[in-house]
Amino acid sequence: MKQNVLKEKSFKFAVRIVNLYKHLYEGKKEFVLAKQALRSGTSVGAMVREAEHSESKADFIHKMAIAQKEINETIYWLELMCETKYLSSHEFDSIHTDAIELMKMLTSTIKTAKLTITTNH
Questions:
Q1: Which of 70, 75, 110, 120 is the most exposed place for a label (fewest CB within 10 A)?
Q2: Nearest by Cα to 106 from 72, 76, 78, 64
């Protein structure tokens, strides 16, 4: 069940990132940082989806670890956009909270998956 929640939240996060990209691109004429956040922010959900059909437990963990790296990178871009005033504190707080929640969920999923490997050997 946790996987479905992660799948749903990562997809909704990707939608928010796409909308943020459109806002920054069209409204603030910011192209480089917005594109970086778009790439990393949408790849989180893509990796979660790939993990659904992983070939092994190790492959599942690997794909989740990539998603974890991507959300961490996204957090970096969001923090940078906040510090450089492309995002207001309110805009940042809202999406940053979602990103941190995704990071925690991915970390927990990876830890649980690793535990099942070590307990099954």
A1: 120
A2: 64
50 burial level (CB within 10 Å; 0-12, 13-18, 19+):
middle
Cβ–Cβ < 8 Å for 20, 37: yes
Q: pLDDT tens, 16-46?
A: 999 999 999 999 999 999 999 999 999 999 9
Task: Give CA–CA dist 41/19, Å, rounded.
Answer: 11
Do the beta carbons of residue 113 and residue 57 sit within 8 Å? Answer: yes
Q: Which pair of structure tokens corresponds to residue 52?
A: 């659904």
